[in-house]
Amino acid sequence: MTTPLPPAPDARRTLMLLRISAASLLLALLLLFTPSPRELAALPLGAALLALLPLLRSLARTEQAKASAASAADERERQLLDAIEALPAGFELWDAEDRLLLCNQRIREDYPQVTEYLVPGLRFKDVLRQSLAAGLVTEARGREADWLAERLAERGQRLRPRLQQFGDRWLHLYEQRTASGQLVCIRLDVTELVETQHALARAQAAAQAERQLLERAVDAMPAGIEIYDEQDRLLLANRRVVSWMPHLDYAQMLGKTFAFMLEQTRAAGALPVEAHGMEEAWMAERLARRGRSEQAHLQQLSSGLWLRVSETRTPEGFLVAVRQDISDLVLKERELQASQAQLQAIIMTAGVAIVTIDAAGHMLSCNPAVERLFGHRAGEMLGQNVSLLMDEPDRGAHDHYLRRREGSDGERELPLLGRTREFNALHKSGRSLTVQVSVSEIRGPQGKQYVGVITDLTERKQFEIELQHANEQLLRLSTTDALTELANRRLLMQKLEEEWRRGLRLGTPLSLLLVDVDHFKLYNDHYGHQAGDSCLVRVAEALRASVGRPTDVVARYGGEEFVLLLAQTDATGAMAVAERCRASIRQAAIEHAVSPQGPLLTLSLGVISAVPLRGGTASQWLAQADLALYQAKAQGRDRAVAAGLFNPI
Q1: For residues 443 and 450, is the Cβ–Cβ distance under 8 A?
Q2: Which helix (H) or strand (E) holds 458?
Q3: Each residue's pLDDT tens digit, 565-578
Q4: Model pTM?
Q5: Whole-angstrom Cα distance, residue 555 to residue 568?
Q6: Distance between CA atoms of residues 183 and 415, nearest Å
Q7: In a designed cystine with 370, which of 353, 528, 558, 643 is the match (CB 3.0 to 4.6 A)?
Q8: Is residue 621 a contact partner of residue 612, using CB atoms and an 8 Å limit?
Q9: Are 104 and 85 in contact (CB under 8 A)?
Q10: What is the Cα–Cα distance from 203 to 579, expressed in whole angstroms?
Q11: What does the radius of gyration of the chain's CA atoms come to, in whole angstroms?
Q12: Which residues have a Cβ under 8 Å from the Cβ of 350 and sit 6 or more positions away?
């Protein structure tokens, strides 16, 4: 509620009222106790009171009028305060010393944090200090002292309202001093308006950014773009159009009509080549069809540039003109037309055979190379089915291809189109040929046709067969040990890597046996190297006989060392194979007269079995098998020792 103005008592008026009241009371008493007015007049006091009676009545009426006026003034003051309370804004009244006289309830609601300080008599700067201390003035944060000084300096001096952020709200402050020096302040909450303005500003900024982005995108397009409004006035042209039309100052053309720009182009002598000699008629026809045709038209500019021009109207009536530079395409088309005769000559003199057939497979044309390759004259081939040139089984398959291509269930892709394929062909003499055929489809006025380019591969094919045999022999020599005909070390490492990756992928165990012939150096020294080689061959045969699966690999690792690679084999299976190897050697009964182990040749084996683990390598795994072999030798040889669990290094 409104803080009321403090009352201003009038002492003289009160004293006068008291005197009149006393005189009136005394006169009333005399009249009450005096029998008649004559008797009252006879009394000195009575005569005096009677003389004062008219004056008292006049004074009474005057005071009554004043009381009525004061009551009316009080009523007006009450109405004024009610009106202030009803204001949709905060209202404050400060005296000439900037002390609060009154404020309405809206102020207290808007500033609940400083309500306790809004009491009559409190100075404005003290209220400001409390607001700053509470951190309520957003714009003053970090510079409170300077802000307070600035605010007090401009107090009541601004002609326009002050916009201030108070907490999360925005306020308009209207401050005006009266003639008596008092200050009236109205605080209007404009938060919604400010937020709307901010939203509008953001929307305008976003719209401007989008427009700039659109203009940059249009500017970056490889085609020329022009946009005209519904009155055919230029709104926008990108850089490519500007570069193509140097005779027009596009900055000056903005807002000008297309007809005006056309006149400027004629004046500059820059109309398209097609308009030369008939400028008026061409311009009239150009304006008549403007924006009315959905088909693009070609223009050759006076600069020699060829443009493809398309014009489209939007639902709003705007016109978008797109100009594409097709000079390269026109040039290529002319070059293509100019080279057709040369192409025909090339076909007729080409070293490869070229034949054209229709959709039914009948030969329509052929070059001399076809005659040389197949031995038929052109007259014997034209009109015949191309299968005449094929040998079985391709002869029967050819018609099947064409029937599938032209079948009743719809057109399908011909398997030969866009591909190169080898065919078994047949010479007129009956000699078999190997040819390579590439087929392309041509669609023309005569319907679908196919062009086949045929290359003789007969000699090359024979060479490839011989080369393949040689490569197979070379591969066998490069992966086989020449002495034992086992896999050599190179093939072993390749297989080991493959099986290692397979075990890693599938989580299956892999086993490896590293085999060493005991005291083989003594054997070589005693029996000679030729006997040593024979011994190694017999050991290889014994080891090969100890494995039974095609996937098992027996390899000569080097010197007298051998490796057995057993895929998908656990430790139990690996030890069983190791014992079979030792048993096979005992059964072979190879004499070793100088062996410390006894009269017969023996083997030591290092065995490792594990599921390959990530982080390890096949070479690390092989190294642990070598450690197991070392343990077998250290324990007295002629035995198989299994390595511990595989731990990647």
Answers
A1: no
A2: helix 458-479
A3: 999 999 999 999 99
A4: 0.36
A5: 18
A6: 98
A7: 353
A8: yes
A9: yes
A10: 87
A11: 58
A12: 367, 369
Please list the alpha-helical segments (H only) found in 350-457.
Answer: 368-374, 378-381, 394-405
DSSP line for 522-586: HHHHHH-HHHHHHHHHHHHHHHHHT---TT-EEEEEETTEEEEEEET--HHHHHHHHHHHHHHHH
- Angle at CA of residue 602, ends 601 and 603, nearest 5°: 135
Distance CA 341, CA 349 (A): 13
Q: What is the largest CA-CA distance in the chain?
A: 188
Helix 144-153 × helix 124-133 angle, to 10° = 150
Read off the amino acid at residue 283: M
Cis peptide bond N-terminal to 393, omega within 30: yes
Per-residue CA distances from 8 to 5, 11, 13, 79 (Å) = 9, 10, 12, 19
- For 536, counting Cβ atoms within 10 Å of its Cβ (0-12 exposed, 13-18 middle, 19+ buried), the class is buried
Q: State how far Cα 55 lies from the chain centre.
A: 101
Residue type, 353: A
Which residue type does 106 have? R
Encoded tokens for 52? 């004062």
Task: Give the tokens for residue 291.
Answer: 């924006």
Residue 19: predicted pLDDT: 55
Cα–Cα nearest to 368, from 384, 379, 357: 379
Q: How far is CA 67 from the centre of its chain?
A: 84
If you write DSSP's letter for every residue of 246-261 in order, what string do you get? TTS-HHHHTT-BHHHH
